[in-house]
């Protein structure tokens, strides 16, 4: 630590931590899942966003609480509306990879004003089709923050 300011030490630590080591388990649903069932899944799994994937694992969408609320407060039957009509879809999804640092991932959440990012890897050589392997969220950041807070003298 010789000659380093506290802020530098903190920054160095954050840039050493990889998304791979801190990612959470993703909760995935199919495109034809109803908004109603997506809401139930959110409660059951205790998450704020769900990833919409095709058979074979390809990421096609992200659906958040507000996406579902929007449908629920409209005059639509949530059992009849598929999540594919409410989700944010590819290629507009902000993603991170396991090799990204926790710092870069956290910066993305702030920059795009979102609560979570799917952690992905390419499904083929085109690089356009992505497979979901995890979830990086504001809760992940809170956990990292607490872990770093545990490092202290005495
Ligand atoms: P909430 O709706 O619970 O506030 P977010 O702030 O994460 O959750 O979502 C806000 C909007 O951004 C929603 O329309 C959602 O579909 C979209 N969104 C969420 N995560 C992503 C992401 N990783 N990439 C692109 N859009 C996203």
Automatic annotation (TrEMBL):
Record keywords: CBS domain, Transcription, Transcription regulation
- Domain (CBS) spans 18-78, 87-154
* Entry keyword Transcription: yes
UniProt GO MF annotations: DNA-binding transcription factor activity
Q: What is this protein called?
A: Transcriptional regulator
Native organism is Tumebacillus flagellatus
Identify the taxonomic lineage of the organism of origin: Bacteria, Bacillati, Bacillota, Bacilli, Bacillales
Whole sequence portion shown: 59 to 212 of 212
């Amino acid at each position: 630590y010789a000659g380093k300011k506290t802020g530098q030490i903190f920054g160095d630590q954050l840039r050493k931590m990889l998304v791979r080591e801190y990612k959470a388990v993703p909760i995935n649903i199919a495109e034809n899942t109803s908004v109603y069932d997506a809401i139930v899944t959110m409660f059951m799994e205790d998450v704020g966003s769900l990833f919409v994937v095709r058979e074979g694992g390809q990421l096609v969408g992200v659906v958040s609480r507000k996406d579902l609320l929007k449908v629920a407060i409209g005059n639509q039957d949530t059992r009849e509306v598929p999540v594919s009509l409410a989700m944010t879809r590819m290629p507009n999804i902000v993603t991170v990879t396991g090799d990204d640092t926790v710092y870069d991932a956290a910066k993305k959440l702030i920059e795009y004003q979102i609560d979570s990012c799917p952690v992905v890897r390419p499904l083929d050589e085109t690089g356009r089709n992505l497979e979901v392997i995890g979830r990086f969220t504001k809760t992940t950041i809170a956990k990292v923050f607490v872990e770093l807070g545990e490092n202290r003298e005495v």
